[in-house]
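Researcher: Sequence of Metacaspase-1 follows. Predict its structure.
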Amino acid sequence: MYGSNMLVNCSGCHTPLQLPPGATSIRCALCHAVTHIADPRALPHQPHSSTHGPPPPLPNVAPSPYNHAPPGPPPNAHGRKKAVVVGISYKYSRHELKGCINDAKCMKYLLMNKFNFPESSIIMLTEEEDPRGPKFPNKHNMRMAMFWLVQGCQPGDSLVFHYSGHGSQQRNYSGDEADGYDETLCPLDFETQGMIVDDEINATIVRPLPPGVRLHALIDACHSGTVLDLPFLCRMDRSGRYVWEDHRPRSGTWKGSAGGEALSKITSTGAMTFCFIQAIERGHGTTYGSILNAMRTAIRNVGNDGDVIGGGVVTSLLSMLLTGGSGIGGLRQEPQLTACEPFDVYTKPFYL
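Model: Prediction complete. Tokens:
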């Protein structure tokens, strides 16, 4: 019997699956395909190394639907950078939104040019992609992209999940939501395939995070609430004073990570992308507190006609957001921050 679990890709839908010790096959709960695995005891011996090298190739593993996973040598002391960016406009439907695809393009540009994310390590899902390909924003592809984001993450890695589109809520009957509702994201095919519930998002991209990995989720959606299901929520008043609220479920279910950091910035205004990028572009990205304050100020300074009335320099990226129709009007709720553990937002440095 071999002792440690293996991660293999389903031979049918490519979902990463955890192979129990001793097993030589596993059935996928999503597509029900059976993936057969060669006995790892028959593999050549792999010498142990004190450095963090790439794991040996898995036997009989189906190829990932994303053929542009981050290339190059194993992670260095600063780790790898990976991102999933989703923008859904629901075009030609009664749910159509303006500016979401443009938000995704601007976020990708920011990650590449401000935070040095390699283009090959960013997966962007929009309706401009091939409807039959893995980057079209349907439910299956969004699930696969989230699996890809955390797969193989190691200490020092920086992960980003950005979503611009519809969010919703549905009644929770398990007792693990403080307000009695699950928050959801709405993939393009949500009316036929269903929404992606916060419990699944938490289980997919939060709970697997090992120590030393940092995940930032930027959610620009209506009714998104605490869509990553993180245990603590930071509320800040107009003077900049803040308090952490304990949102741990009464059931005792742990919704944090396996030691890594997960932080989520959320608005239900359709303006998060604009305000976040404006805060970074204008030099307010030193701490989480400075970003939250700058985003709050931006929201207060945006009129319902979509004009920026706060003044200041409008960079080419902010101009791209404005001219691209990003939703920055009709603002109602200020940004929130959620995390696995409370911390001092004015001393903790922000970085991606």
